[in-house]
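Fold it.
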Amino acid sequence: MTKPSICNYAVLLVLAIALGGCAMSIPNPDNSLLIPEDPSVQQAISIPVYQRNELVSSPEEALQLLLEGNQRFKSGQILNKDLSFTRRSELLKKGQHPFAAIVSCSDSRVPPELLFDQALGDIFVIRVAGNIVTQAELGSIEYAVEHFKVPLVMVLGHEGCGAVTAAVEGGETHGSISAIVNKIKPAVIEAKSGDLTGSALIEKCSDLNIQNSLKDIIKSSIIKEYLETKRLRIVGCKYDLDEGGISFVD
C-alpha cells in the first residue's frame, strides 16, 4: 500500500476548510449571507447605532443628550455603539470631541458611559471614590473645559455610597483612604447637625458631598471664566442604583 503524499494531505486540508466555511455561512443567490432567524439576533440587528453631532457647544444640548441616554438605559432600550476599528482609528486621527465632563464615584455599579448610553469619545470621565474633587480631579476638569471645550460638567454621586457611609460611621481608616474620608467629613458634620439617622443621614450626607464638590469646582479661575461667559454649565446629580435613573441635587 502506498503512503498518502504531502500533496494529498494538502488537498484534504483545503476541502476541509472549504466545507467548514460552507457550514458556517450559506450564500443567497444574490451572493449575500443568510441572516440567522433567531429573534434575539434579529432584534439586535434592528437597533439603530447611536449618533450625535460631533461638536456640541451648548450646555442645554449636552445635558439633554445625557438625560435622553439615561432614559434609554433605565428603560432597557440602549442603542448599538460603533466600536469598530474604523471608528477607533477615526478618533485617533481626528481626535476626541467629548461633550461633557463627569466626576463620578469609582463604584463599579456606576459606570457613566453605560448609565448615559454613550460611546467612544463622547464623555470625559473622572472617577474617584466618593466623587470628591481635589486638585488632581480639578485639574482634569479644567483640562476638559479648556482643551476640549466641554459645555457641561456633572458631579455624579449615588445612593448607598460606600465612601460616604465610611465617613458617616467614622472608625479607623488605613493608608490613603483617610484622605477620601477627610474630604467628605464637612458634609458629615453638616448632615449630623439635623435629626437624621441611619440611611436617611447617609443619603443627606451624600447630597451635601455632591454640593461640596460643585463648590470646589467653581473655585477654579478657569471654570469661573467659562461660567461667566455662559459657555459652561455645572450640575450635580445622583444615581439610583436599582431604578437606574438620575435626579438633580440642588
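The longest strand covers residues 152-158.
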